């Protein structure tokens, strides 16, 4: 494990002026600026130029999670003419009928979720309810708090509809808290990648927000391989680090689904792997460690603890092809078309990257887990990159500009 005494939280601070934070998206996704770091040099570009700027023999790996409108609002019954208290329910993690997000979103009639609850002190007892309209048909949606300590809420609605349909109708976009504004109609399509598919994230994989259908088409015309998997981004991505001992920061497990063709691509294609976003990078690196666990521990459970890569003491860790071969053999033996797993991997300086050679990512909050990941990937040059972005009018955070980071390619 990395016990470097020099790994201090203050070393990953930088001054981010409020005016540098992009509060709204640009009118056109592809017009965002693109900082390219290649061969230790920085150039300024536009995102629509990405196909020209990717290294020869690249392959792109995308996280196709879809942001759900995870903020639900209920009004308690009041005493006329005073309205009742407004209760906000923020969906975090499903509990039943399945803890698997993909299955929970397809539940019909009822389901239970662990949630964050705004104004909880006003919700003593009773059922909250509201009428929503799905395809113009009125439906009653009820919320019952069944475990106050664990913030567990059970929802009920007509069983003709899935929970995905319910939240799509009743919920609001869960914008990052640092935007300090309410979601608008514009946010519903814009806080979503054009390739989003699998419902379940409560935060967007923001590196993908710059891609358009035209850019995807151009990448395809250039025969640049594009692969997709799912990591459902949790609210933990916004959790600030509050401890000086960085390794003590709690990392919440996030669910992943990886198709067999992704493993085969990593095994058989001799390509430079470019992760589109920190969530894609965490997924790819977690996949490698799953192969390690299969090879050395005969552990078929796909769960990567936050410090496992640092605590794995085997002297001769396998190559990427060897790890992928172990995973593929396991999948074929178990007749699996895809892997379901969880990761809480924590990537900070000292981590040795196994799969990823490049990263497309936005500019992140100071002293955050995401800036630690960038620093791990880029080394001390992350300071130079961020200073350049600050002095060359780049827009920061979720709706901000982008970077293509190529430390070794």
Describe this structure in words.
By secondary structure, the protein is an alpha/beta fold. It has two domains: 277 residues, QueA-like (3-Layer(aba) Sandwich); 101 residues, no CATH class. The protein is built from eleven helices and 18 strands. The strands form three sheets. It has a ten-stranded mixed β-sheet, with helices on one face. Strands 5-6-7-10-9-8 form a six-stranded antiparallel β-sheet, with helices on one face. Strand 1 and strand 2 form a beta hairpin. Helix 7 packs across helix 9. The longest helix has 20 residues. The mean pLDDT is 94.
Short summary:
The protein contains eleven helices and 18 strands. It has 409 residues and is of the alpha/beta class. Helix 6 (260-268) runs antiparallel to helix 9.
């Amino acid at each position: 494990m990395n016990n470097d005494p020099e790994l201090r939280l203050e070393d990953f601070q930088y001054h981010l002026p409020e005016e540098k934070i992009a509060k709204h998206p640009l009118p056109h996704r592809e017009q965002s600026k693109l900082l390219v770091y290649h061969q230790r040099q920085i150039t300024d570009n536009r995102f629509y130029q990405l196909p020209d700027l990717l290294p020869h023999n690249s392959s792109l790996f995308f996280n196709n999670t879809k942001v759900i409108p995870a903020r639900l609002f209920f009004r308690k019954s009041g005493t006329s003419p005073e309205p009742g208290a407004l209760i906000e329910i923020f969906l975090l993690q499903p509990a039943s009928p399945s803890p698997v997000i993909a299955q929970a979103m397809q539940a019909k009639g009822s389901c239970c979720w662990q949630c964050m609850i705004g104004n909880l002190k006003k919700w003593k007892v009773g059922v909250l309810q509201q009428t929503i309209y799905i395809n113009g048909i009125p439906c009653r949606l009820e919320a019952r708090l069944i475990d106050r300590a664990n913030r567990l809420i059970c929802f009920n609605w007509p069983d003709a509809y899935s929970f995905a349909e319910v939240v799509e109708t009743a919920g609001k976009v869960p914008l990052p808290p640092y935007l300090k504004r309410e979601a608008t109609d514009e946010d519903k399509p814009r806080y979503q990648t054009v390739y989003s598919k699998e419902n379940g994230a409560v935060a967007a994989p923001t590196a993908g927000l710059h891609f358009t259908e035209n850019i995807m088409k151009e990448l395809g015309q250039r025969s640049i391989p594009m692969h997709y998997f799912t990591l459902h981004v949790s609210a933990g991505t916004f959790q600030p680090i509050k401890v000086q001992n960085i390794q003590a920061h709690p990392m919440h497990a996030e669910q992943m689904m990886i198709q067999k063709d992704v493993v085969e691509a990593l095994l058989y294609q001799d390509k430079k792997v470019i992760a589109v976003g920190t969530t894609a990078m965490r997924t790819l690196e977690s996949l490698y460690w799953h192969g390690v666990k299969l090879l050395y521990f005969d552990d078929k459970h796909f769960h990567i603890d936050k410090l496992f890569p640092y605590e794995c003491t085997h002297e001769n860790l396998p190559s990427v092809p060897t790890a992928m071969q172990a995973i593929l053999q396991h999948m074929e033996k178990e007749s699996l078309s895809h892997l379901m797993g969880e990761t809480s991997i924590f990537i900070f300086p000292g981590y040795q990257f196994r799969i990823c050679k490049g990263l497309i990512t936005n500019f992140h909050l100071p002293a955050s887990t995401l800036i630690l990941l960038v620093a791990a990937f880029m080394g001390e040059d992350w300071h130079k990159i961020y200073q350049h972005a600050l002095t060359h009018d780049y827009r920061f955070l979720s709706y901000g500009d982008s970077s293509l980071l190529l430390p070794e390619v």
